[in-house]
Specification:
The complex is a heterodimer of chains A (498) and B (123).
Chain A (H helix, E strand, L loop, with lengths): L9 H7 L1 H19 L5 H19 L6 E3 L4 E3 L2 H26 L6 H17 L4 H19 L6 H32 L4 H11 L4 H17 L8 H8 L2 H26 L6 H23 L4 H22 L2 H27 L18 H4 L1 H15 L5 H15 L3 H27 L7 H5 L6 H17 L3 H9 L11
Antiparallel strand pairs in A: 1-2
Chain B lengths: L5 H24 L6 H4 L19 H31 L3 H24 L7
The chains are: A mainly alpha (498), B mainly alpha (123).
């Protein structure tokens, strides 16, 4: 093997993986700073700055041509930048929302920020992976950090339940995932996604080994994005974890998993006839949307309700993936950005309105009656998030839903799109119920503990929530954000296999 | 392609068969003369004292974790050291040294964290 020139492309690699490297560096800086200085305000600042630097860098590279760096193991520029921005925005919002929250629950350890940054680095690695090994390494880096963050409040039984359930089920699903990768490697002889694609075209046939591998692989992915029937962990884990970190789990980690799935489907498997797995994905999407929304209807706890709602939203993204066209993948990526903004906002508001000292595990939505009049800013912002989550026209959620349902109709899955729209209509009941309780009920109906509490809102938290709401108001009217996703996917690569 | 795996299958069957045969042979052929000393737990010649379900300090695991960190370090460094001459000959010595330095630095941060958090203090 010729090893001369092994490091010739190092500067190009560093530029391509810049945001990933900045995150890893910031994580190490956080840890070292924490053990020597224990100076709290610096840590979230370092973590947030790493996210900001990453976002600025990726925005500059949004319309650069996609390429691969670090010996083809991760993708950079173009689509990868778009995905990184989604992940980094969620991470930035999480860091800022966590500071006052963790101070209030008295668990403001320095490690939290290092772990958020490391989880984000894992998410970035997974969401821009070009090889199955990178997907796995990213997934593990992200998951292990999240297991610890879920059990942050280690004296609380809910936190322990959350962390343990997440860890055991996550490890179990990772086993499926890894076995799937092993079988795919056996069937294709490569870990690199583009090589898989060219291998299929050359060989022109698919073995049983490949089908077994892809099935196990999908099980692992569907678990991570909490699609029915692999959703059981979601409500309990989301309910017990500290609220801003729950928001992180439901946005950044989900966006990373979906982005990796899009990369595998598009770069690795696109030459295959899509009909091969369309039916399976369509069924999973349908069941996920219907069951997620139906179970959300009966929840009294806001975090559980949002957990089931995030299951339902995974179903909407799966509708776009079912289509299996370039528009479908573009719609999925666009939806992930909008979904991240509205979900991190909704969890942010719930984090600020927490009064039970059990990370919101015990409080019902009804207990917050009339809170909109006391906290108008949070009430109005929650209104924007709820309407956007339903998919109500002027808000971002509507444009996101159009982007995921339209490709399904074009691909002949009209029934699935109709089911999705009906499920969204159903979701209106539980989203609007939050607003009904916030605004239409009087404060006298609220829990006495709620009336006794002041719910202080720091400037930084308010800024995050308001920014998310404002962006959701205008994002649909900036066609650039949507059109950008279209150019990342080339329609000519699909189903070229004989 | 599946035919390639037949020897593997054969080996699995042989291994399972051998293990089963040995276990069954010991069960049916071996003499059994039980006495209290034989039935007791084996503690390297000591008489067993008390229950095995005791609580002990988690620090033990911290040491084990540090061991694994450095074990992995050696596993990575050994092949690196072996092929260092080749990289040197190809004129890539600085690059390959920088890469491994970063690796050791990251591990060093882990060790530093462990020491500062009291992972090596016994009480």
């Amino acid at each position: 093997m010729d090893i001369s020139g092994a490091y010739d492309s190092i500067l190009y690699d560093i530029a391509g993986g810049f945001s990933l490297l900045v995150l890893l560096l910031a994580g190490i800086v956080c840890i070292v700073w924490d053990i020597f200085e224990n100076d709290e305000p610096v840590l979230p600042f370092v973590a947030a700055m790493a996210c900001v630097v990453g976002i600025v860098w990726e925005v500059r590279n949004l319309d650069a041509g996609s390429s691969t760096v670090f010996y083809d193991s991760i993708r950079a520029y173009g689509l990868a930048s778009y995905i990184n921005i989604t992940i980094l925005l969620s991470a930035l919002a999480t860091v800022i929302l966590s500071v006052p929250y963790l101070k209030r629950i008295k668990h403001g350890y320095g490690e939290v920020y290092a772990l958020i940054v490391f989880a984000t680095a894992g998410a970035v690695m997974m969401g821009t992976a070009n090889s199955l090994v990178t997907v796995f390494v990213g997934l593990e880096t992200m998951s292990i950090s999240l297991y610890i963050l879920a059990g942050l409040v280690r004296r609380d039984e809910g936190g322990i339940e959350s962390a343990l359930k997440y860890f055991l089920l996550g490890a179990f699903s990772t086993g499926f995932f890894l076995y799937g990768i092993a079988l795919l490697y056996g069937a294709t002889g490569t870990m690199y996604l583009p090589e898989m694609a060219s291998g299929f075209i050359e060989r022109g046939e698919l073995t049983l080994l490949f089908w077994a591998g892809i099935a196990l692989f999908f099980v692992g992915f569907l678990f991570k994005v909490s699609a029915v029937p692999f959703h059981m962990w979601t409500p309990d884990v989301y309910q017990g974890a500290p609220t801003p970190l729950t928001g992180y789990m439901s946005t950044a980690s989900k966006a990373a998993a979906f982005a990796a799935l899009v990369l595998v489907l598009y770069y690795g498997l696109a030459p295959m006839p899509v009909a091969a797995w369309q039916t399976a994905l369509a069924v999973v999407a349908l069941v996920t949307m219907v069951l997620g929304n139906l179970l959300a209807l009966v929840q009294n706890n806001a975090k559980r309700m949002l957990a089931y709602s995030s299951i339902a939203h995974a179903g909407y993204v799966l509708v776009a993936l079912t289509a299996g066209t370039s528009q479908g993948y573009a719609g999925a990526v666009y939806y992930l950005l909008i979904y991240s903004l509205m979900n991190i906002g909704a969890f942010g508001v719930m984090a600020l309105l927490e009064w039970d000292d059990k990370e919101g595990r015990l409080q019902t939505i009804d207990s917050l009656a009339g809170i909109g009049f006391r906290k108008p800013l949070l009430g109005v912002a929650m209104g924007v998030f709820m309407f956007s989550l339903i998919g109500f026209p002027p808000f971002g959620g509507f444009f996101g839903k159009v982007a995921v349902f339209a490709p399904a109709i074009e691909a002949g899955y009209t029934w699935l799109a109709i089911a999705g729209v009906l499920a969204s209509a159903l979701s209106g009941y539980y989203y609007l119920r939050v607003l009904y309780v916030f605004w239409m009920r009087t404060e006298e109906q609220a829990d006495p503990a709620v009336r006794a509490r002041a719910f202080p809102v720091s400037f930084s938290s308010a800024a995050v929530v308001v920014t998310c709401a404002l962006v959701l108001l205008v994002i649909g009217f900036i066609p650039y954000v949507r059109d950008l996703t279209q150019i990342y996917f080339d329609a000519s690569v699909f189903a070229t296999m004989p | 392609m599946p035919a390639d795996f037949v020897p593997l299958l054969l080996m699995l069957a042989l291994a399972a068969g051998l293990a089963l045969t040995l276990l069954l042979a010991a069960r049916y052929l071996g003499p059994r003369r039980a006495n209290p000393i034989k039935e007791g737990a084996y503690e390297s010649g000591m008489d067993p004292i008390g229950t095995a379900r005791q609580r002990y300090s988690v620090k033990f695991y911290l040491v084990a974790m540090i061991f694994i960190i450095f074990d992995v370090e050696v596993v990575f460094l050994y092949p690196w050291a072996v092929s260092f001459q080749e990289f040197l000959a190809a004129g890539e010595g600085i690059g390959v040294l920088a890469v491994v330095s970063i690796f050791i630095l990251v591990l060093g941060v882990g060790l530093l964290y462990d020491i500062r958090k009291g992972g090596l203090e016994f009480d």
